[in-house]
């Protein structure tokens, strides 16, 4: 992989076992189908070399950048498993089956190719150079909007601030049981105002 006309990182992988596309006799995905990439294994998160391998695979296999993908177009899965210092690459086709509800049942069918890879020689960029290669120009950076953020998957999240509602002004349905009784509404004789008090002669 190159950056600024220099080698950014270079990784050598040895193939221990391979199964070609033609050896697996199943129907294939149409050419140009954008694959879903799945990475399994603790090494992809903890080991620095495997982290770079994962990043390199994402660059190679991610396909074109698109704004939206229809459900029927999600039919190709590339699965990478890191285990005991090796990387197992498997290619599957997604089959959408009837499930009796709105969400279909998904089955995976191996279509090939299949590779068992082992990590050999590596030439990785320094942390500073790697950070510089990921730097985005200011013109391409999305403008920050107040109370709007994005999660790791790119979904837009908004925060709405509301004032505390005054529950005393809340309109409620009037019920007969909540009405004041007539006896409660008539003031007590002892509680009468001076204007209403009787004058004894």
TrEMBL record:
Compartments where located: Nucleus, Nucleolus
Domain of life from the UniProt record: Eukaryota
Any GO MF annotation of the entry: rRNA binding
Basic and acidic residues: bias regions: 183-201
GO cellular component, one term: nucleolus
Domain Brix, chain residue ranges per copy: 1-128
Name this protein carries in UniProt: Ribosome production factor 2 homolog
